[in-house]
Specification:
Layout: H1 2-18, H2 21-32, E1 35-36, H3 37-44, H4 48-60, E2 64-69, E3 72-77, H5 79-96, H6 101-104
Antiparallel strand pairs: 1-3, 2-3
Length: 111
């Protein structure tokens, strides 16, 4: 019984980190190439503070890595974790979500 509780806690932390639309957009941008915060701000059209706040969560959970380059920090994706996860999501979506119609009923759009 303890193992299930621990698994639930791990899953909650893992999936709650990924359940934010801004964080998912950051991951999607970083899959293409490493970026500085100002590049993400321009690409995602969000405020720098919003990007930085959400990057902190992604870095803390090691979905994203950060490396200092001079005075700036460059962010890159943890391909070991993110790539297989995205494959599982895409496979599930195509195989079970009927083009997404059923799964999209649960999506809440960010304002």
């Amino acid at each position: 019984m303890t193992m299930k509780k621990d698994l639930s806690t791990m899953c909650y932390g893992f999936f709650s980190t990924l359940s934010n639309p801004t964080r998912l957009a950051i991951i999607e941008a970083l899959v293409e190439k490493p970026m500085y915060v100002n590049q993400m701000v321009a690409e995602l059209g969000q405020e720098q503070s919003m990007i930085s706040h959400n990057l902190k969560h992604l870095v803390n959970c090691h979905f994203v890595f950060v490396k200092r380059e001079g005075k700036q920090r460059v962010y890159s994706i943890n391909h070991e974790t993110v790539d297989p996860l995205m494959k599982v999501i895409e496979n599930h979506h195509h195989k079970f979500c009927k083009g997404g119609a059923a799964c999209h009923l649960n999506v809440v759009k960010e304002k």
